[in-house]
Amino acid sequence: MKIRSVRAVADLGILKGATGARIVEGADGKTYVMKFAGRDRAAVNELIGQALARSVGLPAPESVFVEVTEQFAAGLPHVASGPVSPGIHHGSELISGAMDMSQFGRRQLNPGELLLNPEALLASVCHDNWVLTKDRDRDDNHLIYPVAGGFRYSMVDFSHCFTGTAWTADSVEQGTFLRVLMPVHPIIAELVRDAGAFSLTLDRIEGCGDSDIHEVVSAVPESWGVSDEERSCLEGFLQVRRGLVRSILDANASVFPNWR
Predict the structure, then answer these.
(1) Which of 7, 13, 93, 207 could form a disulfide with 27 if both were Cys (CB 3.0 to 4.6 A apart)?
(2) Residue 192 class from Cβ within 10 Å (0-12 exposed, 13-18 middle, 19+ buried)?
(3) Rounded Cα–Cα distance for residues 164 and 257 (Å)
(4) Which backbone phi and psi does 11 adopt, to 5 degrees?
């Protein structure tokens, strides 16, 4: 899996959230949300979560490797876990002009304005139960932004895949067969009418081959500190869970108030 690289040239501030992400300008003139590698698993989760989402047709930002020089790192403020290390970190292009779920829900749409990809809202539930994303019920993990003819939806923030940023090989193995439904945003829960809402995305997840999963996990840089054992556990986790998501959703139909 080819991932492009961009050098960070300007720090534009911190992004609210638990992972201490920074907003940076790249040498290509674009703006990125940068999550730091090495201090926890946030960067690893972002890379794998985004790549898998995009592989099954979900709208998510492209992952990039953000190159941080020693000089740039020295100019960044320290965070609770210490100074930022130079090297390769994870970046996602910032979606400008976006609203979170609640902001969009309060917006008065003009005639002809539509959400152009509403099916992606439902598809996000499938992905989150494949990779065990524990915080997708938050407003700011769903962004909706204006485009010609209306609005489009994008998933963002995959830091809490695999149940969080502090996973280990043991915790990944323990979560492999977990059948608890991951949190669903209430607006999305109300949109589900029946199992057919998930069919296309479930077909794509179940069709994701072992080699596809291996390619994604292998894209994690060695410098991010993921051991061979941990990579193997991640691959096994994803291989097993791709076949469980359908039954997990069916077993939890009562969570969706309009499922008939």
Answers:
(1) 7
(2) buried
(3) 27
(4) -95, 125
213, 218, 219: which is closest to 236 by C-alpha?
213
User: Domain tally for the chain?
Assistant: 1
Identify whether 159 is part of a domain.
Answer: yes
Domain-located, residue 260: no
Q: Could you tell me what percent of the chain has a pLDDT over 90?
A: 83
Measured CA to CA, the distance from residue 93 to residue 136 in angstroms comes to 20
Helices 228-241 and 210-218, axial angle in degrees (round to 10): 140
pLDDT at 241 over 90: yes
On whether residue 179 sits in a domain, the answer given is yes
Is the pTM higher than 0.85? The answer reads: yes
10 has pLDDT over 70: yes
CB neighbours (10 Å) of residue 7?
14
Read off the pLDDT of residues 58-82 as tens digits, 9 standing for 90 and up: 999 999 999 999 999 988 876 655 6
Q: Is residue 36 assigned to a domain? A: yes
CA dist., res. 13 & res. 95, Å (int): 16
In the chain, what is the straight-line distance between the N-terminal and C-terminal CA atoms, in Å? 40
Q: Which residue, among 140, 156, 148, 139, has the nearest Cα to 116 in the 3D structure?
A: 148
pLDDT for 248-258, tens place per residue? 999 999 999 99
Structure-block tokens of residue 181: 């439904």
Residue 80: exposed, middle, or buried by beta-carbon count in 10 A (0-12, 13-18, 19+)? exposed
Angstrom distance (rounded) from CA 89 to CA 82 = 16
